[in-house]
Amino acid sequence: MSSIFRLTILCVGLVATLAVAADAADRKFIREGMSEGEVVMKIGRPDSESTDSGGGSQVAVKRWVYFPARGDSQTITTLTIREGRSSKSTDRYPAEPF
Questions:
Q1: At 75, is the secondary structure helix, strand, or coil?
Q2: Which domains, from first to last, does the chain contain?
């Protein structure tokens, strides 16, 4: 493997790590009514995504989940996206050990 290729892989990994750290800090700035694009630009793509369109629903509801990340290792953030806009945001913190 060439040294240029290894250096490129290292740089990409470093940038990705820094982006994740920034995303965790920016989660608190997500507000109701933001578009999907605004959310993605602010904190990146979700770690997990699901769509609920069952029961004859005319509007699909997406749930985006962001897992704990460096700089915010205790928080799981869940966003509800309805009609392309964030409609709800919740943060969950794990229970304290006994």
A1: coil
A2: 3-92 (3.30.1450.10)
